[in-house]
Amino acid sequence: MVVTSNPDKAEEIGLYLKEYLEVEHIAMEIPEYRDDDVAEIAKKKGEYAYQVIQKPLIVDDTAFCIDTLHGFPGPYAAYVQKTLGNAGILKLMENQKDRNAYFETAIAFVNSKGIRVFRGRIEGIIVPERGSLGFGYDPIFEWEGRTLAELSTEEKSWISHRARALAAFKKWLKEGGIDSFAI
């Protein structure tokens, strides 16, 4: 199960894991935990969700970090997206030469044996909005010449920060990690 209030995230995760797991989306509002490390936030979200549904699940948390802004908005990306949006980020970036940024996602897998976290990161640059696909910061984040909003969901599901965390999770599953998993 993928526990998130964001159906786009659930779809992206489902596409990536379709050959290994049947992914069911559980829409749940999870408290907004605060920490500078997305892995710690993902763990807390996973603990909360597992207490509610008592079934194996996946949750994630993502940071969007802009180098010239000293990592802002970081793990507060969702709040900043709601309050400033892409237009606000672009305003902050006016006249900035350093446009480097990255996304980092932590995927937490939780079951009765505990919590296991997997990380993924993708580096790119901040650009004026382009593309009509994706969500959140996708239209202003360029990777290898295209914004994430210019990639189909399927393309993005193979190269994104979330995909890279999911690749580590998938590798762990393939190697039998889930069978020997214990706290």
What does this structure look like?
- With 183 residues, this protein is of the alpha+beta class.
- It has a single domain (2-180), classed as Maf protein (Alpha-Beta Complex), CATH 3.90.950.
- 37% of the residues lie in helices and 25% in strands.
- It is built from seven helices and eight strands, in the order βαβαββααββββααα.
- It has helices at 7-17, 38-53, 77-83, 85-92, 153-159, 161-174, 177-180, and strands spanning 2-3, 25-26, 57-66, 73-74, 100-111, 114-126, 141-143, 146-147.
- Strands 4-3-5-6-7-8 form a six-stranded antiparallel sheet. A two-stranded parallel ribbon has the order 1-2.
- α1 packs across α6.
- The two termini are 20 Å apart.
- 38% of the residues are buried.
Topology:
Layout: E1 2-3, H1 7-17, E2 25-26, H2 38-53, E3 57-66, E4 73-74, H3 77-83, H4 85-92, E5 100-111, E6 114-126, E7 141-143, E8 146-147, H5 153-159, H6 161-174, H7 177-180
Parallel strand pairs: 1-2
Antiparallel strand pairs: 3-4, 3-5, 5-6, 6-7, 7-8
Helix pairs in contact: 1-5, 1-6, 5-6
Summarize the structure.
This protein has 7 helices and 8 strands. The chain is α+β, with helices and mostly antiparallel strands and 183 residues long.
Q: List the strand order in the largest sheet.
A: 4-3-5-6-7-8
Helical/strand content category: alpha+beta
Order of helices and strands: EHEHEEHHEEEEHHH
What's the CATH C level?
Answer: Alpha Beta
CATH topology description? Maf protein
Overall outline: globular
Number of domains: 1
